[in-house]
Amino acid sequence: MRILNFISDNDNITVKSVLKNKFNMASSVVTALKNTKGILVNNEAVTVRKILNRGDELKLIIPEVDSSSIVPVKGFLDVLYEDEDILCVNKPSGMPTHPSQNHYCDTLANIVCFYYKDIPFVFRVSNRLDRYTSGVVIIAKNMYSSSFLCTNEFRQSMKKTYYAVC
Questions:
Q1: What is the pLDDT of residue 67?
Q2: How many Cα atoms sit within 13 Å of 112 on the Cβ side?
Q3: Of 69, 62, 51, 52, the residue nearest 26 (C-alpha)
Q4: Portion of the chain with pLDDT greater than 70, in percent
Q5: CA dist 146 to 10, 20, 52, 138, 152, Å?
Q6: Beta-carbon neighbour count of residue 27 at 10 Å?
Q7: pLDDT-derived band of residue 66, with 50, 70 and 90 as boundaries?
Q8: Distance between CA atoms of residues 59 and 42, nearest Å
Q9: Secondary structure string (H, E, C) spanning the chain
């Protein structure tokens, strides 16, 4: 679960406007918030049509579901960076990113799911590397960060550099 807080500094702004313009939320995240009553203004559940006034506190409780069918497998995970929204790891060459035919338990996804075995976690990778390519893989740790990492704005700001050993 991820919790976001926002204090309104304007009058007459809708919650929906804040979700779209301030948080750049995908429709799927907004729908999840609605379905779980995860939109609170001054600790009271509201809809996206609620009008905010200056000083109102908007609290968003973004749910997480454990719907992963990926088998957790213990293995070495080279963590480069981690915060409450993303995990950046160095994927070695020869390791597939996702389980597939003939690769059910020897993937980066299996190892990451083991790393988070004690919390509800869904493997959401924002970039993929081919099996024989090593490099940084960015994994979203929640629904909100996943939607952000998939935006065109974020993707256009990323720069990839490939090196080949010949």
A1: 61
A2: 29
A3: 62
A4: 96
A5: 28, 15, 26, 10, 12
A6: 10
A7: low
A8: 8
A9: CEEEEEECCCCCEEHHHHHHHHCCCCHHHHHHHHHCCCEEECCEECCCCCEECCCCEEEEEECCCCCCCCCCCCCCCCEEEECCCEEEEEECCCCCCCCECCECCCCHHHHHHHHCCCCCCCCEECCCCCCCCCEEEEEECCHHHHHHHCCHHHHHHCCCCCCCCC
